[in-house]
Amino acid sequence: MAAQQHSAAEENKRHKHEGPKKHIIAFIFSILLTIIAFAMVAAGEVNTTFIYIMLVVMALIQVFIQMGFWMHMKDRGHVFPIVGILGGVFVVFTIVIMASYWAWW
User: Fold this and answer.
1) Is it the case that residue 93 has pLDDT exceeding 90?
2) DSSP letters of 50-68?
3) CA-CA 20 to 30 A from 101: which of 4, 27, 35, 60?
């Protein structure tokens, strides 16, 4: 009986439900990043290089928010999906860089 109670406590600890609070905060933050990006582009008076850099930075922040809160990559036990995603990012960047070099020469 003690073993069943112990395993039930571990099961509850492992599958603890976070609730919607963090998801709502992440959603609001994602919406704010999107609004800021649209406003920067719509303004048109800002340096285009600065806009490109800021759009890439905000996109990267958006990716980490999406992966951390919606895809739950911040939780334990997601090593293989993270390695797969990083491997895919490495392959895509390699392809883009090699295609750029190929087009230049």
Assistant:
1) yes
2) HHHHHHHHHHHHHHHHIII
3) 60
